[in-house]
Amino acid sequence: MRTILNVIWLVFAGIWLAIGYAVAGIICCILIVTIPFGIASFRIAAYALWPFGRTVVRDPDAGVFSLIGNIIWCVVAGIWLAIGHVVTSIPLFISIIGIPLGIANLKLIPVSLLPLGARIVDND
What pTM does this model have? Predict the structure, then answer.
């Protein structure tokens, strides 16, 4: 079931989200100072491609630089990404088949708000 949901997600929402996060990652890697944000964007892009069966785990030893980076990210990009995920999940919730896809879209909000110090792991 997980594979079927991932394929449906990939076709309807995942590819577009992953492209957006990848473009943001490329832009962040061009600027030297924002390379950690670029790497985080690439991780989120991989998660946006295949979200079912994976989850986000916070690293308790992330450190103060991760906290400062997350605050900067949240103000500059995170809040807008979270709003985008909420807005794009609404049409997914309208149809019956889109409900799990809408839930997966909302599941991306915590990592899009605070990407530094987060690891994406399999549920198994």
Answer: 0.85
